[in-house]
Amino acid sequence: MKTKTDRTGLRRQILDATRSLLLSEGVKNLSMRKIAAEIGCKAPSIYYHFENKAALIQALVEEGHQLLFSLMEEAVGRYTDPLQRLEAYMRAYVRFGLDNPVYYEIMFMLRADESGYDPIESFRQAKKSQAPAIEAFQEAERQGLVSTDDFIRATGAIGIMLHGYLAIILNYPENSPFQPDEMLDYIIDRVFRSHGIGGEPYKRHRL
Amino acid sequence: MKTKTDRTGLRRQILDATRSLLLSEGVKNLSMRKIAAEIGCKAPSIYYHFENKAALIQALVEEGHQLLFSLMEEAVGRYTDPLQRLEAYMRAYVRFGLDNPVYYEIMFMLRADESGYDPIESFRQAKKSQAPAIEAFQEAERQGLVSTDDFIRATGAIGIMLHGYLAIILNYPENSPFQPDEMLDYIIDRVFRSHGIGGEPYKRHRL
Amino acid sequence: MKTKTDRTGLRRQILDATRSLLLSEGVKNLSMRKIAAEIGCKAPSIYYHFENKAALIQALVEEGHQLLFSLMEEAVGRYTDPLQRLEAYMRAYVRFGLDNPVYYEIMFMLRADESGYDPIESFRQAKKSQAPAIEAFQEAERQGLVSTDDFIRATGAIGIMLHGYLAIILNYPENSPFQPDEMLDYIIDRVFRSHGIGGEPYKRHRL
Amino acid sequence: MKTKTDRTGLRRQILDATRSLLLSEGVKNLSMRKIAAEIGCKAPSIYYHFENKAALIQALVEEGHQLLFSLMEEAVGRYTDPLQRLEAYMRAYVRFGLDNPVYYEIMFMLRADESGYDPIESFRQAKKSQAPAIEAFQEAERQGLVSTDDFIRATGAIGIMLHGYLAIILNYPENSPFQPDEMLDYIIDRVFRSHGIGGEPYKRHRL
DNA sequence: GATGAATGAGCGTTCATTCAT
DNA sequence: AATGAATGAACGCTCATTCAT
User: Fold this and answer.
1) Which nucleotide is nearest to A42 (CA to C1')?
2) B125: closest chain A residue by CA
3) Which of A70, B116, C146, D35 shows the smallest number of beta carbons within 10 Å?
């Protein structure tokens, strides 16, 4: 029986409080003291669970990558048609960013020296999450649904586009210079068109 | 070391030193004292020329928007064929970002509360720079070179894509997860393909 | 309005307060905050006058070396007989240490990494202060009062002895394991004896 | 029984790790956590074996005094000629300091409030180690080899000199302002000369 | 015997900014 | 037009130590 029920998992509390503070105040204004204040513990306690501030953010980054990976796998797994899988991937990726702005920002929008997270490792993780899209592309090609032979680059280009979309929305959440939903539809549409074949660009079963 | 004879000299020096420091040390490590030290004056002197740090960065942002605008106009002006104008626009936009990473970052990658610059005003400026691309699209449509009727959104989507491209390269300059040049060619190619018509997707005279 | 009188020379106040705190609490317990509190200013103000803690201590070390130098010159200058000059040097050196324990400690008893002062520079300064003793030795030899040809080493050995004497007294000010005054007389006596010639070891006119 | 071995084991490990850390990082940078990390245990475990940091250092100081005592006895015991015994004492004392800088520093160069060790007790111990030198002096006098009647003070003066020598070398190990070996020979020589008798200062059989 | 968890106190330092001059 | 001097607020972090387990 635990007497300190409200103290259970300070490590978890720290991570959550950090996410919450990052969301409300941004990376620049995150401080160990504020995190501690948010939880009700003292700043040095954080150092028991994390070596330093960078390690704390790094832990969040890793959580983010794991979540992203599982979400991408799950999203793609809902469909069998490769183009649907691809669209599902794109939409789920965007959803991940919109639902988890803090994760997305520290994963992909923070300079390495600010997050303390090795960017190479970050991209290695990101590539793992891209795999479902690459495989979907491959399968689509095999089925003659798209004309592309450079699946990796094609997926990279999609990632770039979705990153641009998310980066703008997340950076200016209240002042997005475009209609997010309509723009996303438009973007996805253009992606498919760009891989279309002749007059019948793609045999796409819309989600 | 410049002399202090020039009246407007210090203001200019401050702006230049700020850009230089932002380039070498990043936004996070920029401080009024460092700027002053770089120039050889004292921190309070900066306050004579700029109300505060935010105003200083804002001045740089405005400079950046002016430069971007003139570069975009100039780039498009070199061609008459609308698709060439469009491609020139895209390439010049990317070039602007790569050549002026500091401008690009404070213009489009800094949160409003960090730059102190009104994001709405920022997008108003950005839209001005997008005008040449929009007009090129319109003309291309008029000439039957592309099948698009939503020129603004199409241009927005291009901006999103190029922003994603630049954001990644600028954020991880030494660890870009793709080959910048080849990816840029690929992206531009896909943009045109996505607006192609039937079996002959576009009549594009490559630059 | 704060008059110039009570604010004059915060830099000087900082140095004095630092010396005072070093005396009462030791190097280990010196902190920028305590210095500030002693004076009545705030810790950051110290940083206007000294780059950091090491620079502050270094400034004191330099002061100490200057004081030592002038005291040694002055002490030796009071006599013409070289052996008297030598004795005066030794007694004045000890007096400097006893009167200025803080100076002595930071000059000669602090590890380089604690004082932030280059030990080589420190010894260069110390050697300057040793010059009067070396010259006295030389003159004593010329006059046939002592039999020594290695004046530098002889002076070095004296310095070592006096340092041992001071280091013990200063480290255990209340518990010195010997009678300071008598021991000093004894030491000086032995120094002269060790340089004596035959049965009439030295022609010394006691001070 | 395994328990007993373990019990004394960690205590011993703590002492050794502390010595090692003191050697490599200095007193200032010694911390309970670092000691624990060095061993592979946690900081609170140290408190099972030592009441606090001061007690831990005190234990080392005591070890040092024991070692010094046995080394001095042993060194002097190798000779029968009292002057040789005296020289052996001096050389062994210096050797102890050079070979065991950490012991020497915490025994004789640390302020009482830093070591937590009663300085009076410290000097009581130190005097025990001086006994062989005092006795050698007495015997030398008895044999007419030196002219001294204050053996205790004479030995004290020697201790002061050797302490000065060691304090400088240990404090500036890389920047000693004199040649250690030659200076030691010189010092020992002067000690004997200072106790010499008339034209034939001492009948010393060099070691 | 040892540790997981936590904390109060404190550290050196940096910062944007102010204001009298 | 610029600066000398100062400050309130905060920062990341380390420390010796405690205490329940």
Assistant:
1) E7
2) A177
3) A70
Q: Are residues D125 and D71 in the same domain?
A: yes
Query: What is the residue range of B128's domain?
Result: 54-194
Which of A164, A147, A135 has its CA nearest to residue A202?
A: A147
Question: Would you say residue D13 lies in a domain?
Answer: yes
What is the tens place of the pLDDT at every residue in B9-64?
899 999 999 999 999 999 999 999 999 999 999 999 999 999 999 999 999 999 99
User: Which of A183, A194, A195 should one mutate to test binding to chain B, selecting the residue with the greatest count of B CBs within 10 A?
Assistant: A194
Q: Give residues 7-26 of chain B lying near strand F (Cβ < 7 A).
A: 7, 9-10
The letter for the amino acid at B204 is: R
Q: What is the mean pLDDT of residues D140-159?
A: 90
What is the C-alpha separation between A16 and A11, in angstroms, rounded?
Answer: 9
CATH number of the domain residue D90 falls in: 1.10.357.10
Give D-chain residues touching C163 at CB under 8 angstroms: 164, 167-168
Counted residue by residue, chain A has a size of 207
| Cα C13 to chain centroid, rounded | 22
Residue C40, sorted as left (phi over 0), alpha (psi -120 to 50) or beta, turns out to be: left
Same domain for D78 and D129? Answer: yes
C191-205 pLDDT per residue, tens: 988 887 544 545 566
Q: How far, in Å, are A75, A157, A161, A162 from residue A184 at the CA level?
A: 17, 15, 10, 9
If asked whether residues A20 and A68 sit together in one domain, one would say no
Per CB-CB distance under 8 Å, the chain C contacts of D112 are 172, 175
Same structural domain for residues A42 and A125? Answer: no
Q: How many residues can be counted in chain C? A: 207
Q: Is residue B85 part of a domain?
A: yes
Terminal alpha carbon distance of chain C: 54
Pull the structure tokens for residue B140: 């291309």
CATH number at residue A6: 1.10.10.60
B49 touches strand F (CB under 7 A): yes
> Does one domain contain both C97 and C154?
yes
Within chain A, what is the greatest distance between any pair of CA atoms? 70
- Cβ burial, residue D181 (10 Å; 0-12/13-18/19+): exposed
Residue of A114, A151, A161, A169 for testing the chain B interface, max B β-carbons within 10 Å: A161
Angle at B95 between CA B93 and CA B100, to 5 degrees: 100
Q: Are A71 and A57 in contact (CB under 8 A)?
A: no
The answer to whether A83 and A202 have CB atoms below 8 angstroms apart is yes
Q: Which of C155, C126, C127 is nearest to C140 (CA)?
A: C155
- In angstroms, what separates the C-alpha of A203 from chain B's closest C-alpha? 14
Q: Are A83 and A91 in contact (CB under 8 A)?
A: no
**E-assigned strand segments in B10-146:** none
Task: Clarify whether residues B39 and B74 are in a common domain.
Answer: no
pLDDT over 70 at A39, yes or no: yes
Residues D70 and D167 in one domain: yes
Q: Give Cβ neighbours of residue D20 (< 8 Å, ≥ 6 apart).
A: D38
Q: Is the CB of B53 within 7 Å of strand F?
A: no
pLDDT of residue C3: 36
Residues from chain C that touch D198, judged by Cβ atoms under 8 A, are 198-199
Is position C71 within any domain?
Answer: yes
Give me the number of domains chain D comprises.
Answer: 2
Is there a domain that residue B59 lies in?
yes
Facing residues of D197 across strands?
D200
- Are residues D139 and D77 both part of a single domain? yes
Model confidence at C153, pLDDT cuts 50, 70, 90, reads very high
Token pair for C176: 């010195």
The rounded Cα D46 to chain-centroid distance in angstroms is: 26
What's the pTM value of the predicted model, to 2 decimals? 0.89
State how far the alpha carbon of B202 is from the alpha carbons of A107, A144, A187, B90, in Å.
37, 22, 19, 17
Contact between residue D87 and residue D188 where contact means Cβ atoms under 8 Å apart: yes
